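Bit of a strange request maybe. I'm writing a small parser for structure token strings and I need a real example to test against, not something I typed by hand. Could someone generate the tokens for this chain?
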Amino acid sequence: MNGQKKQFIGICVLVVLCVAAYFGLKTYNAKTTEKEQKEEESKKIEAVKIDKEKVNAFSYQLNGTTITFEKDGDTWYYQPDHSINIDQDKINTMLAAVADVTSEEKLENVEDTSEYGFDNPTNVLTFTMGDGTRTITIGMQNEITNQYYIMDNNSDTIYIVDSSMSTAFSKSVEDMTATADTSSDTSGDASTDTTGE
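Reply from user aminoacidic:
Good idea to test on real output. This should exercise your parser:
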């Protein structure tokens, strides 16, 4: 009996040690991951930060045409024609693309910005706010990394960013127009069911 009791105690101790080792390893991995995330975040450089709530109007280029949206009250409109029903969520998504843009690399004291496509930019974004105007110029795309070179009119620094900003501001007016479903959702009206007629 004493031998079985000792064996049972030994097994219990082993189980406790295994559980302790498991949770210890889990905690260690969590702390390591958190540390790596913090190190990664610390490497990021603020490239563009625009408070979308302060933007009253903005424009961008598409196929050689300037597309401009303006805000009247709480509603966004296509500037040349307010009768077009613009999808407000799509406007918010577009502005979110410039709310907090970070870069992992920046180029300073560049003598010839044309080397990065700024003499023939991919796009020019202009944001009008109560305290002034901000212009973000998107240069060429790096074919290897698929990233873009951008410049803010507030700085001579060139930032290298991912393609999300360029993609966001490549929508036509038709792309930004609310569909019938979106309009009904916005107004709160339900679609009429005609199956019973």
